[in-house]
């Protein structure tokens, strides 16, 4: 018997999320558009996540359950990509949940408008579902943008443009993952590695300025748990991958990525100075700042002063921030 084909593949990586998984999967079941398959990829859970998945599989033949050896979030997403049958991909984190028209809105957008990806706004919610804030990407009033324009918007920290980097809150044409473009394994901030590569392949994208994806901000999540040196090094590597990628591709994005990297170094030095110095990373970051400060671009007087001080010694900026209370 021929296996049923679906328009959309929803890939859900799972690891020890029994507390939140039912809410997530129920939100998928209740979608107003239903022509999709759901790939539940269990990354070696040792709680009851597997049993919860099996319950949904037994009730709904769109759900497929796979259990694999623990390999991390990127490896789990890649596992799903390699088995997905749909023309379009959606990634849903297993502790998050969707509004009922999420799939319908994103699928309709990508189908009717000849775009390669559709992005929607998000609601940040706490573990009980209370909305903390919404980000509908109102930094732009445009609906249709090029992939490069999306990347450019991601640099806008004032309006949480960084949320554009996340793998979820989007639907993708599967062709974007051709030639084995996959998530970087074994890294924190894995979305940061693939995002620019994906959107350089996007000719046209669409933004739906509505919060259709509920991102649950867990207190003990990977990103929000305590900082460590591997997180800093992985973030550093991600930043440098953007600089290397854009160097020979787009001058504006190249300069923006350098600006972001330099600001990140100052921020990390202020927030995580003790971790950086205790792990012999201080000299490296100081050299990196001086290296990329050689790239000249227009700056405000205030930025030039901060840049000059940071070139001399990042600790001066650190102590000035403490003295000035900033």
From TrEMBL:
Broad EC category: transferase
Can you tell which superkingdom this protein's organism belongs to? Bacteria
Pfam families this protein is in?
A: Glycos_transf_2
The EC number on file is 2.4.-.-
- GO molecular function terms listed in the Swiss-Prot or TrEMBL record: glycosyltransferase activity
The keyword GTP-binding is assigned to this record: no
Keyword check for Mitochondrion, yes or no: no
Q: Which UniProt keywords apply?
A: Glycosyltransferase, Transferase
Q: Which InterPro entries match?
A: Glyco_trans_2-like (IPR001173), Nucleotide-diphossugar_trans (IPR029044)
Domain Glycosyltransferase 2-like as annotated: residue spans: 9-132
Identification of the protein by name:
Glycosyltransferase, group 2 family protein
